[in-house]
Amino acid sequence: MKSALVAVGLLLLGSVATDARQESASFEETIRPILVRNCVECHGPQKSKGDLRLDRLAPDMAADGARESWSKVLDQLRSGSMPPKNKPRPSAKELDTLIAWVGGRLDSYEGVRRTKEGRVMVRRLNRNEYQNTIRDLLGVEIDLVDLLPLDTSSHGFDNLGEAMHTSSFLMERYLEAADKALGVAIANAPQPPSQKKRYLLKESMGVKSATEKVYRPLDDEALVMFSSSPWNAIVLSQFYPPDRGRYRFRMSASGIQSSGKPVVYRIDAGPMLMGTKNHLVSYYDAAPDEPTVVEWTDHLEARSHIRIHPYGLAGAQVVNKVGAADYTGPGLAVQWVEVEGPLHDQWPPASHRRLFGDLPQKAGKDRRLEVVSEHPAADAERILRDFTRRAFRRAVREEEVRPIIDLALAKLGENRSFEQAVRVGLQAVLVSPEFLFLREKPGVLDAFALASRLSYFLWSSMPDEELMSLAERGELAKPETLRAETERLLRDPKAAAFTENFVGQWLALRDIDVTEPSTILYPEFDDMLKVSMVRESQLFFEELLKNDLSVANIVSSDFTMLNGRLARHYGIPDVEGWTFRKVALPPGSHRGGVLTMGSVLKVTANGTQTSPVLRGAWVLDRILGTPPPRPPAGVPSVEPDIRGATTIRAQLAKHRQLETCASCHASIDPPGFALESFDVIGGWRENYRTTGRGQEVKVDGRRMPYLKGPKVDPGDVLPDGSRFDSIDAFKALLLRDQDQIARALAARLLTYATGGAPAGADRPQIDAIVGKVRGKDYGLRTLVHEVVQSGLFRSK
Asked: What is the residue-wise DSSP string for 102-118?
């Protein structure tokens, strides 16, 4: 028998070797000659565009790096962008042969790999997912993100398995985070007293000494703030809570001397500690002459504060000249601030009861309350079984939960208290790979893995009990049930995480603070404008999603979401205050769609000048799903000349004379030039701003620190020969292929939802998704539903 098995094995090895030799011979006889005639001149030993050497590329798709390179070759062949138009091109028959050979080998390799490993790699929770999961598992509001290392990104997202690494340092961070979270969830002290108190700003520190200069008492209670200078903001110093928790705030304010317009102000909150960063609660509108009460709740650490800062008022020097009593400009009158908290519906809080139920507590020698049990072993086992099921997000096997229970029982045997022993078990669960990783087996996802994939897609958090129950009953995988659950999750407030995390990465909104615009070239830029930019993009996406509007709106729309600050920046009249609303865009506004949003225009520029290369590559990648190759090694980048001696178009024209750069720039530069009518902060421009050569510029009678430079030319030619002379004409050209816009967004959604970017073999399934949404006007909500229903989403 043994000798027979050896013989069969040798036959199989011989067959494999024969197939490999035949494939190699076929490649050398048929494929390599086509590559030599048409491709190696630019991708060979003399030149190496994009670091792609076709003379060295192995025909074996399993070879190191070969699969990725052949995938790029296939994309270029299918799109017709390679070889370039001015180079010898293969015949139609040769092109079909190349596409069939490369596509067939890639599909064959991918099919074998996926059967064994699945399409996507196993991945762990990223920082945001981890914090949200702890919140929903334990029922606590706690900031854990800063305890964990930054997540690395791949394909534009930070939740892909290929980019998520683990280390001993990371595990130490997880232990610390688990201990901190349990310390907040478990109540070891009596209920902190809650109080409701009204405060007056005139009683805050530093107000009395500056009252005559920039503040004006309005009556027995109200205080008017006339300056937007940061050092004239008022900290409500009387509010200094000794306990962490959730607090409810109510504030009465009005605008005075504001010509009938609302006065905007911002509220910041955070600990009063050196080196800590406050967070923005929100901006608010104070109605003119009529007290307006706003209300918000916020979770604060002990010894926190709030800070009130008017927006858009005069500088302190202007008010000081005449004094606050005689100043006639607009101001913010604050009547009172009311605070209630910390708010607790019950005690011990829900987080504590979620772990220990109604087990009693007793005070120890240090007066610290601890949970006790008359049946410690049985209660510990019951608590840990229930917690493990919820934490692992699935039914657990005995061999998985038994070591955790035994660990807690061992601590009881060491004379640890009941609570201490259970806490050790809880912490073990929170650092377990089954909690930290999304476990998925190759093939169709089981019901629990499907529930997790859906919830982490739309909530960036764990499944709730309704999802878990459907998974346990085997009903979630039914298409109608999955569709209903997708709709339920989208309607839930937790779906705000989908907007924040998906849109924040797809449009690169997270990079809004990476650069700080030059105060010389862009003195009008301020924090409210920046915050408004990001909010516009988020609200626009939510509007498309809520009303199932066409994804074509991503390129061009007849509306956007505006507040007063952003409307003023865009030159759109009759919008005042902080509050956002849906605004129909007037003719000639040149806005509409994400390409012309201030947020996108800012993150695709540096702090001084725009780059058509950067913006063009962004459009190809994020909107059209056709990312350009990396630039060849050793080719210098183009640096815009802020002194105004040469234009970026002139510099790029010289750059494109390099043969190694011309073909790629023919695709990259046109969308970048179309966006040249918008400056670094997304403002419309006819001319560049410079600091060297140019004409003097005045705005509202004031001389600006920058000069008027050369005229902007936003025209160019697409690779297919189509010409455009403005951003509006460019948008019209993009809208000729709405399938491509939907296809690119579907691929982005699948990448984010599954933790892995689709490959060439997935093109038919993506095309099927696009085909289904085409008949429903490419609706965004429909697209999300079809992504969830697809085989790519429902399998590893």
From this structure: HHHHHHHHHHHHHHHH-
- Quickly count: other Cβ atoms within 10 Å of residue 459's Cβ: 25
Separation of alpha carbons 704 and 70, rounded Å? 53
Distance CA 190, CA 347 (A): 8
Q: What kind and span of H or E run contains 429?
A: helix 418-430
Give the per-residue pLDDT at 210.
77
Each domain of the chain, given as residue ranges in start order, spans 27-117, 120-191+349-439, 195-341, 508-539+556-736, 739-789
Query: DSSP string spanning 706-749?
Result: EEEEEEP---EE-TTS-EESSHHHHHHHHTT-HHHHHHHHHHHH
Q: What is the mean pLDDT of each run of 10 residues along the chain (796 residues)?
A: 43 45 72 77 66 73 74 73 69 81 77 80 95 97 92 94 90 96 96 95 87 86 94 93 96 96 96 77 95 96 95 92 93 97 94 96 87 96 97 96 97 95 97 95 95 98 97 96 98 98 97 94 96 98 98 98 97 95 95 97 92 94 89 60 61 61 78 96 96 90 94 93 96 97 98 94 94 97 98 96
Element at 320 (helix H, strand E)? helix 316-322
What gap in Å lies between CA 404 and CA 667, rounded to an integer?
57
The DSSP annotation for 457-514 comes to HHTSS---HHHHHHHHTT-TTSHHHHHHHHHHHHHSGGGHHHIIIIIHHHS-GGGGGT
CATH fold group of domain 195-341: Jelly Rolls (2.60.120)
DSSP 548-603: T-BGGGGT--SEEEE-HHHHHHHT--S--SS--EEEEPPTT----SGGGSHHHHHH
Residues 6+ apart with CB under 8 A from 257: 328, 329, 330, 331
Structure tokens at 794: 């429902």
Q: What pLDDT shows up at residue 2?
A: 45
Give the pLDDT confidence score for residue 4 in this predicted structure.
46
pLDDT value, residue 12 = 36
Collapsed DSSP state (helix, strand, coil) of residue 737:
coil
For position 84, what pLDDT does the model report? Answer: 66
Indicate the pairing of strand 716-717 with strand 702-711: unpaired
Identify whether the C-beta of residue 314 lies closer than 8 Å to the C-beta of residue 329. Answer: yes
CA-closest candidate to residue 766, choices 794, 737, 736, 745: 745
CA–CA distance, 678 with 283 (Å, rounded to integer) = 26
Q: Which amino acid is at 544?
A: L
126: left (phi over 0), alpha (psi -120 to 50) or beta: beta
Q: What is the pTM of this model?
A: 0.87
CA dihedral 723, 726, 730, 735 (to 10 degrees): -120
Structure tokens at 554: 């991503």
Pairing of strands 223-225, 263-271: unpaired
Whole-number Å distance between alpha carbons of 346 and 353 = 10
* Collapsed DSSP state (helix, strand, coil) of residue 655: helix
Cα–Cα dist 382/389, whole Å: 11
Cα(381)–Cα(237) distance, integer angstroms: 48
- Coil, strand or helix at 204: coil
With tokens 């189509």, the residue in question is 722
Task: Provide the pLDDT for residue 5.
Answer: 39
pLDDT for the residue numbered 209: 80
